[in-house]
């Protein structure tokens, strides 16, 4: 899925692009022709954070920072920490956060180069502190490691799963989140069982929304939220349909609002 809000602007370096999101509310530097290109997935993930309080948000595997920056752009009281393992992508995230076009976000976005799968003292030493965040968001690598690997090393690292990835990332989310905090993620539908198992006793009140390209087509993504320490049962929400007109590539009105930061995708339960 591509993002119709990706607009290439003037004067980035030759090997990178400067892209506008949320109709110009924030901008993102990304490598040109390499790595993962942020788009609709990141914007839907950001829309899962619906909280007007002063909050601290962790974006695990943030890449260039699209989802975390989108949260900060829409929620003026949110402070966001972007955690990214790749030194190159962490540098893009830092540069994006410091752009003059993102002046409204200055002082509210931090970037930490860290591995989201670390545990115990190593995790804490890397900056992933216990009980520090109200929200943790993640868009983990979604390709099975057995799939054909792209020759683009930067893209491969962003897309290819490692063994027990959901278990390790969701374990970290549970450790760094305050009690009652919210986990939000976007993934492929085939990962549902693994994600639910990883939530285990750490998270309850799981809400899952299947995302369908068009009416009658199979889901291509799921949106999932869960609450740390809750014992409430799982619920399956009504599908989110990207294009409600089968003959058009235009996003449905609700999806367009989510994509461009005009609305949040609120949980049904609390």
Describe this protein's structure.
This protein is an alpha/beta fold. It is 25% helix and 26% strand. It is built from eight helices and eleven strands. Strands 3, 4, 5, 6, 7, 8, 9, 10 and 11 form a nine-stranded mixed β-sheet that branches. A two-stranded antiparallel ribbon has the order 1-2. Helix 1 packs across helix 2 and helix 6 runs parallel beside helix 7. The chain is globular and about 45 Å long. The N terminus is likely disordered.
How many β-strand runs? 11
- Helix content, binned percent: 25-40%
Mean pLDDT: 90
Flag low-confidence runs: 1-10, 156-160
Question: What oligomeric state do these chains adopt?
Answer: single chain
Total of helices: 8
Q: Say what the CATH topology is.
A: Rossmann fold
The biggest beta sheet is recorded as:
9 strands, mixed
CATH class descriptor name: Alpha Beta
Task: Write down the Rg.
Answer: 17 Å
Tally of domains: 1
Within CATH, the superfamily carries the name Vaccinia Virus protein VP39
Strand content: 25-35%
Shape: globular
Give the distance, in angstroms, between the N- and C-terminal Cα atoms.
30 Å
Structural category is: alpha/beta
Indicate the CATH architecture. Answer: 3-Layer(aba) Sandwich
Task: Give a short summary of the structure.
The protein contains eight helices and eleven strands. It is of the alpha/beta class.
From the structure above, extract its key features.
nine-stranded mixed β-sheet; 25% helix; 8 helices; 270 residues; disordered N terminus; 11 strands; two-stranded antiparallel ribbon; Rossmann fold; alpha/beta
